From TrEMBL:
Record InterPro entries: CAT-like_dom_sf, Condensation_dom
Ranges where the Condensation domain occurs: 3-140
CC terms in the record's Gene Ontology section: cytoplasm
Coiled coil: none
Name assigned to this protein: Condensation domain-containing protein
Pfam families to which the protein is assigned, alphabetical: Condensation (PF00668)
Organism for this UniProt entry: Pseudomonas syringae pv. spinaceae
Annotated GO MF terms: catalytic activity; phosphopantetheine binding
Amino acid sequence: QRITAVLRYHHVIMDHIALDVLSHELQAILLGNEAGLAAPVPYRNYIAHVLQGPGDDAHEAFFREQLGDVDEPTLPYGLAMTSAEQIPGEARLKLDSALCSQVRDQARQLSVSAATLMHLAWAQVLGQLSGRDSVVFGTAVIL
């Protein structure tokens, strides 16, 4: 028997880590191994955890300390796009599955996400293109 599922979600709802957990749980259920899964934790527990954490002032102080000396983002070749007409089209590159596995394995060994390693690689590219040792760029990250 073959089962096909299509999962459609926004990255605000589920990041790659949550998708890995969901995939693992679905596979366990389909193979009849759901007894080995951890009991689900109510979402309200997560909300309580977040509310007990540092407030906005602490977060702002952290980022001011980390980024206080940044005057501008790191722009490849020093080029700033000033209008919508200058925004380039989309480019996609499919990475070899062996390379993807190596990146995931390395991330696990370092206790970081594969996204963190890709951000590091992008930082290295930006540093080389801009001639800077320290670079700043934005990205969407869900923790």
